[in-house]
Write a structure and sequence with these properties.
The complex is a heterodimer of chains A (about 140) and B (about 300).
Chain A: E1 9-15, E2 18-25, E3 27-32, E4 35-39, E5 46-50, E6 53-58, E7 64-69, E8 72-77, E9 80-85, E10 88-89, H1 96-111, H2 116-137
Parallel strand pairs in A: 1-9
Antiparallel strand pairs in A: 1-2, 3-4, 3-6, 5-8, 6-7, 7-10, 8-9
Helix pairs in contact in A: 1-2
Chain B: H1 4-58, E1 81-87, H2 97-111, E2 114-120, H3 122-130, H4 148-163, E3 169-177, E4 183-191, E5 213-215, H5 218-300
Helix pairs in contact in B: 1-5, 4-5
The chains are: A alpha+beta (about 140), B alpha/beta (about 300).
């Protein structure tokens, strides 16, 4: 293998409305139902169900990117990583007021009597809002 | 022979109609461009998702079952409740677009005994309404400017019905752009996704594939991707239909414009002939009158 390409893998991060990243990466970390999982080059073939949470990735030059992702699926095979998520937001795109309002609204709804479907919907909305807020407040060095 | 006034009025009214058809042509062409750009943005996601699902299916255990994948008992005999989503336009004046997709839906309705109809777009709603075919009245979505959000709301509703066993199958009838010029209306089964089931997906023996670990487990994975897949499908069906509708309207308006021009030209020729005939007649009358006067004067002298 070429020097400089060592320890890298190809990655493709696709959201429903855009292709966010399509290049080499050194490291990638996502949240799953059972906790965080990290990927480095030549990871064993795996398919992962991704949960709402922060995605951390290290580019070949050592810099980090952090984005908030929604539910999705990740596949790693032949040193290629493909991640599909329904939503993806960078810190710049994030509307913190909207997230806070969404959180309050969801909490308000959860306090009321709801049908099972409404309950699930509010719960999902709350999880999304909390994920966004947590991501926003986090400071990266 | 019509009078010049009548002809002028007719040309004027054609002009007015053409102003409308021309505007509609321009509007639908911009709308179509916008919808196509949106579709192009989601295409990478959807195609990757499809190939990924196919790959995951190959790695599922042989005897794996999941409610989203297995057809339910009795559905093969036509006993199950079948939901049909029919995507029409909100407005007419789009050639045979609405008619084709409605025909497709009616064929589906004939195939199954127990159906439930969900209609997107005002044209389809009014069609089934006048024919007294029951449609879900709470399912009210416009066909205009499809958004992911609308697709999500529809998907959620359908999944809930499916999980509550209120429906056993879900079909969608929509229109697809076959190429940039041609379109076709078609029907697709969305739930259960039995055509994706490992039993039906034949793996070539020569395919050299490595064992995948599935994390945390196949069920969680399916719960994550099947709704997304459905949502992606419904969204792209909405967008494709919208594209096709705009395209159909564009062609319809284009031919209306062309017919209008042709008609106008014919009428203008007729108008000119009538006008010319009138002038000739007036000249002959004047000339004859003058001649008669001259003759009378000469006789007096």
């Amino acid at each position: 293998m070429m020097r400089g390409n060592e320890g890298l893998f190809s990655a493709k991060v696709i959201a429903t409305n855009k292709v966010y990243y399509d290049d080499k990466l050194r490291y990638l970390n996502v949240r799953t139902l059972d906790g965080q999982i990290g990927f480095m080059a030549h990871h064993a073939p795996i398919v992962v169900a991704v949960e709402i949470g922060v995605l951390d990735a290290q580019k070949p030059d050592g810099s980090w990117v952090h984005v908030e992702v929604g539910k999705g699926i990740l596949q790693f095979a032949n040193n290629r990583l493909t991640l599909l998520v329904d939503t993806l937001e960078t810190k710049e795109e994030m509307d913190i007021r909207r997230a806070e309002e969404a959180k309050e609204r969801a909490e308000e709804e959860l306090r009321q009597k709801q049908s099972y479907m409404e309950y699930k919907k509010s719960q999902a909305a709350l999880a999304r809002a909390l994920g966004r807020l947590e991501f926003y407040k986090k400071t990266y060095l | 022979m019509p009078t010049t006034r009548e002809l002028r009025d007719r040309i004027g009214s054609i002009d007015n109609t053409m102003k409308i058809t021309n505007a509609m042509y321009l509007i639908s062409s911009t709308k179509m461009r916008k919808a196509k750009a949106e579709l192009a943005q989601t295409e990478p996601y959807f195609y990757t998702l499809q190939s990924m699902i196919a790959r995951v299916m190959r790695h599922l255990p042989e005897d794996y079952t999941h409610p989203f994948l297995d057809s339910r008992e009795g559905t093969a005999e036509g006993e199950g409740k079948v939901a049909i989503i029919c995507v029409t336009a909100d407005k007419g004046l789009a050639g045979a677009y609405n008619h084709n997709v409605i025909k497709e839906t009616e064929e589906l309705l004939k195939q199954y005994k127990n159906t439930r109809l969900f209609v997107v777009g005002e044209m389809g709603r009014s069609y089934f309404h006048t024919r007294r075919i029951a449609i879900d009245e709470t399912f009210r979505y416009t066909a205009q400017n499809p958004t992911l959000h609308r697709a999500r709301v529809i998907t959620r509703r359908m999944l809930e019905l499916f999980q509550n066993r209120e429906i056993d199958e879900l079909h969608i009838a929509y229109t697809r752009m076959k190429s940039s010029l041609e379109m076709e209306s078609l029907e697709e089964q969305l739930l259960p996704l039995d055509k994706l089931h490992p039993v039906f997906v034949k793996v070539p023996i020569t395919a050299n594939y490595e064992a995948f670990r599935i994390f945390p487990n196949p069920d969680a994975l399916m719960e994550n991707i099947i709704p997304d897949y459905l949502n992606g499908y419904i969204y792209s069906a909405l967008v494709e239909s919208f594209c096709a509708e705009q395209h159909a309207r564009m062609t319809a308006m284009d031919s209306a414009n062309r017919n209008g021009n042709e008609l106008k030209q014919k009428l203008r020729i007729q108008y000119n002939r009538v006008r010319q005939a009138q002038i000739t007649q007036e000249i002959t009358e004047i000339a004859a009158g003058a001649k008669a006067q001259r003759a009378a004067k000469a006789r007096k002298k």
